[in-house]
Amino acid sequence: MALAQDLMGLGENPLAAARMAGGGSGPVTLACAGTNAATATQIGGTQFMVYVNSGPAAGGVQLPANGGIGGPLIYDNFVVHNGLGTTMTVYPPTGVTLNVGGSNVTSANGFSLTTLKTLSIWTGPTTTQWFGLSN
């Protein structure tokens, strides 16, 4: 699996390399933080595969805002796995609604991802709607 820096070393455009690489900039391990969207750990726009393995109980991560340089594009796929011993929260970007299994989630309350569960999320056709599946 090539990482973005490997593809850029071959002359690929940095934005294209981030999206073609396995896991964008490579699978990342993050610590969750905070108790709301404003204080949660921010996921980068090309961190498409995220494993959360540390952080406080009831901590969370926030998905990146669509567009811009380094932000996700329409229908980009993100995978967030909760490797914690407690439930964590995945917050959509501010002003975005995340539809998971028929439930609309806003950044005010986020999506509760229980222990050892995975959330697959896609950016939607607009900058204000994402959708996903949880196992």
Secondary structure: elements and pairs:
Elements: H1 4-9, H2 14-20, E1 28-31, E2 41-42, E3 49-54, E4 60-62, E5 77-82, E6 88-91, E7 97-100, E8 103-105, E9 111-113, E10 118-123, E11 129-134
Parallel strand pairs: 1-3, 2-4, 3-5, 4-6, 7-11
Antiparallel strand pairs: 5-10, 6-9, 7-8, 10-11
Give a brief description.
The protein has 135 residues and is mostly beta strands.
Task: Describe this entry's structure for a reader.
The model has no long low-confidence stretch (mean pLDDT 86). The longest helix has 7 residues. Strand 10 and strand 11 form a beta hairpin. The two termini are 25 Å apart. The chain has one domain. The strands form two sheets. The protein has a seven-stranded mixed β-sheet, with no helix packed on it. It has a four-stranded mixed β-sheet with strand order 2-4-6-9, with no helix packed on it. The chain is mainly beta and 135 residues long.
For this entry, give a set of tags.
mainly beta; 2 helices; 11 strands
What structural category characterises the helix and strand content? mainly beta
Indicate the proportion of strand residues. 25-35%
Number of strands: 11
Order of helices and strands: HHEEEEEEEEEEE
Helix residue percentage: under 10%
Overall residue-averaged pLDDT value: 86
Query: From the alpha-carbon coordinates, what is the Rg to the nearest angstrom?
Result: 14 Å
Total discrete domains: 1
Alpha-carbon distance between the two ends: 25 Å
Adjacency order of strands in the biggest sheet:
1-3-5-10-11-7-8
Largest sheet: 7 strands, mixed
Spatial shape: globular
Number of helices: 2
Low-confidence stretches: none
